[in-house]
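RECORD TYPE: inverse folding
INPUT: structure tokens
STRUCTURE:
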């Protein structure tokens, strides 16, 4: 028997434009808030008289919670629904903003930021799930491209708006903006998003979720501690050891229980495994470069902090402009070609930075634009590929795990790259790249090492389908794919309660 609310569900998602408007607004909110608040870190540090290691947890706590919560919320959407969890996430994001705005101490501020990350992770975790459950294959790429474009816009606008409004409102007042926007979006999400529960509800593996959270969270914690205290510190290697034990236990549990939190059958899917080694690895390199370049232009080129933002801005702008095009291209020609083009662009950029580390900032800004365009060609098509490769029953779990891994590697990348840079600076030896032309050998060496993940990513793309879901889009290439998208039946069919 079909669920009683099937007809109501279809009417809720009858307007793809309205659905996308709510989703991209929420995505903009979370990315804009993160980059907006980060520019106020020096002011927050001065108010609380915090050490560099402690003030870093205002950002690290948010990233940790984000990376851990994304796969958990994606998996939970199969049972509890996209619409409900999305609204809860926005409400929790607003509540975390209130805690931050009134925080009497740095510890309370970190708690509020962690709450924002933990519940705000529902937005990226469920945005792609909502698109995958609403748009048919061949029309998802355009919608996913719009989401990726919004990320670039939020990242580029955040520092500019945050810096301007921060002087007027103060850092506490800045939190009022995301609080208000989140509360406005909650009722819109409840009216617009699909319910998104699976047709057959399986038992929720809470123990598996805890093990995944422990493994991912402690891994990222060990990286951040290693960067701050050194990887020989007990808190660093001890956390890494516990993370490994938790990960092994999760795998063993997933082999035994009937409905595991992480279905290992996902990794028997050749296309899913291939995209699993492309998108997250590209994110690892992308965020590593975004951390290294500001250090490079400040330490080597003596650039001011305000001018550094101008060097980074082309990356976000190029990503915002290229993402919709890349998403549509993946619908028309398949996912493999755009992803390979993107990885090629990123490889050329990182290789150029290794050769010309220390060149004029204007040239580095051009390299950053190429990096953003390359990342756009990877991100939207890889999300499209992951969604298209998953059976309906595994969309929530598969997309959550895919995106969570991307956030985890993205958060770990800057810490690992920072540790490598420190090691090369302490070694004070000649650079490894024989073509390096300037006096910035440690940076050149780290950029050279960042080419290695791309080797694995390129090999993985060979296992991606050459074309998929392109026929319908090619027939209607003169029309707006968002207007033409007709929602697929959302989880129609009997709903069976778990035994």
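DESIGNED SEQUENCE:
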């Amino acid at each position: 028997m079909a669920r009683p609310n099937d007809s109501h569900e279809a009417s809720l998602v009858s307007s793809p434009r309205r659905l996308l408007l709510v989703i991209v607004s929420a995505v903009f909110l979370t990315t804009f808030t993160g980059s907006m608040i980060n520019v106020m870190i020096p002011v927050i540090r001065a108010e609380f008289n915090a050490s560099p290691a402690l003030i870093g947890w205002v950002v690290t706590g948010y990233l940790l919670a984000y990376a851990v919560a994304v796969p958990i919320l994606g998996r939970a959407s199969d049972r509890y629904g996209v619409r409900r969890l999305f609204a809860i996430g926005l409400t929790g994001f607003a509540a975390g903003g209130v805690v931050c705005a009134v925080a009497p101490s740095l510890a309370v501020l970190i708690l509020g930021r962690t709450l924002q990350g933990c519940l705000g992770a529902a937005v990226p975790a469920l945005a792609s799930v909502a698109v995958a459950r609403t748009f048919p294959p061949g029309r998802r790429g355009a919608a996913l491209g719009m989401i990726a474009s919004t990320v670039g816009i939020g990242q580029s606008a955040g520092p500019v708006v945050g810096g301007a409004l921060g002087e007027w409102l103060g850092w506490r007042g800045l939190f009022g903006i995301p609080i208000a926007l989140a509360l406005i979006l909650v009722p819109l999400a409840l009216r617009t998003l699909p319910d998104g529960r699976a047709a057959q509800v399986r038992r929720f593996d809470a123990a598996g979720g805890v093990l995944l959270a422990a493994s991912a969270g402690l891994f990222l914690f060990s990286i951040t501690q290693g960067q701050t205290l050194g990887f020989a510190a007990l808190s660093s290697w001890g956390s890494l050891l516990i993370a490994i034990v938790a990960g092994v236990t999760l795998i063993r549990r997933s082999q035994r229980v009937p409905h595991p939190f992480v279905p290992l059958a996902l990794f028997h899917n050749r296309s899913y495994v291939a995209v699993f080694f492309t998108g997250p690895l590209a994110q690892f390199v992308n965020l590593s470069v975004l951390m290294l370049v500001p250090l490079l232009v400040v330490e080597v080129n003596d650039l001011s902090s305000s001018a550094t933002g101008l060097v980074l801005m082309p990356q976000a702008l190029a990503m915002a402009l290229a993402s919709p095009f890349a998403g549509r291209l993946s619908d028309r020609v398949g996912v493999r070609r755009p992803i390979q083009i993107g990885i090629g662009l990123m490889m050329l950029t990182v290789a150029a930075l290794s050769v010309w580390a220390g060149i004029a900032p204007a040239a580095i800004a051009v390299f950053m634009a190429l990096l953003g365009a390359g990342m756009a060609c990877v991100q939207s098509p890889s999300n499209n590929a992951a969604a298209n490769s998953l059976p309906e029953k595994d969309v929530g779990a598969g997309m959550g795990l895919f995106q969570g891994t991307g956030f985890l590697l993205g958060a770990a990348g800057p810490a690992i790259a920072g540790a490598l840079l420190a090691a090369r600076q302490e070694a004070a030896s000649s650079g490894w790249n024989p073509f390096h032309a300037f006096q910035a050998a440690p940076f050149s060496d780290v950029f050279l090492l960042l080419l290695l993940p791309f080797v694995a990513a390129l090999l993985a793309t060979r296992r991606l389908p050459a074309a998929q879901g392109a026929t319908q889009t090619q027939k209607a290439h003169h029309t707006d794919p968002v207007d033409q998208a007709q929602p697929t039946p959302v989880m129609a069919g009997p709903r069976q309660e778990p035994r």
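NOTES: The first helix runs from residue 6 to 12.
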